[in-house]
Amino acid sequence: MAEPSRTTQLFAAVIAVAVGALVGVMIYRYPEGLHAPAWVGYMAASSFVFAGFCLFAAAADVPWLQRWLGLAVALSLLSVSAWVAFGPGERECSFSLSFMSGFASEAMCRGGFATGAILVGLLVVLAVRHAATRDR
């Protein structure tokens, strides 16, 4: 599969940063719409912004910056999933598969996000190791 063109990367980067910024503004303007602390929403929004900057770094052919920004994306996602899995308060989750949907128990909800947090945590460890060894 061919790599996307520089123009495509730049277009996607602008869209990702704009989406993240828009979500951040919406969180700031309408915090009552969240079912989580604002910082959790801001971390989710920042993952889009970091992904956009990562695309900018790719278009500019700066691989070391792309690696570290990719790590920032993973850390943003890790913080959100870890809060859902291990944070205080009750959790309400729903699920949807092609053949059924419904509400999940709190244990199922936290368990699913804990599994995701552990996997993303492992990804972060590998990404740090990769980025640190490549920057030498």
Using brief descriptors, characterize the structure shown.
two-stranded antiparallel ribbon, mainly alpha, 2 strands, globular, 4 helices
Task: Explain the overall architecture.
With 136 residues, the chain is mainly alpha-helical. 73% of the residues lie in helices and 6% in strands. The chain contains four helices and two strands, in the order H-H-H-E-E-H. The protein has helices at 6-29, 38-59, 63-86, 106-134, and strands at residues 93-96, 101-104. A two-stranded antiparallel sheet has the order 1-2. Strand 1 and strand 2 (101-104) form a beta hairpin. The protein is globular.
Describe the secondary structure blueprint for this structure.
Blueprint: H1 6-29, H2 38-59, H3 63-86, E1 93-96, E2 101-104, H4 106-134
Antiparallel strand pairs: 1-2
Helix pairs in contact: 1-2, 2-3, 3-4
Count of strand segments = 2
Question: What is the domain tally?
Answer: 1
Integer-rounded radius of gyration: 17 Å
Taking the alpha carbons of the first and last residues, their distance comes to: 29 Å
How much helicity do the residues have? Answer: over 70%
**Strands across the major sheet, in which order?**
1-2
Fraction in beta strands = 5-15%
What's the pLDDT, averaged over the residues?
A: 91
Low-confidence stretches: none
> What is the number of helical segments per DSSP (H or I, 4+ residues)?
4
| Sequence of secondary-structure elements | HHHEEH
Biggest pleated sheet: 2 strands, antiparallel
Helix/strand class: mainly alpha
Write down the overall geometry: globular
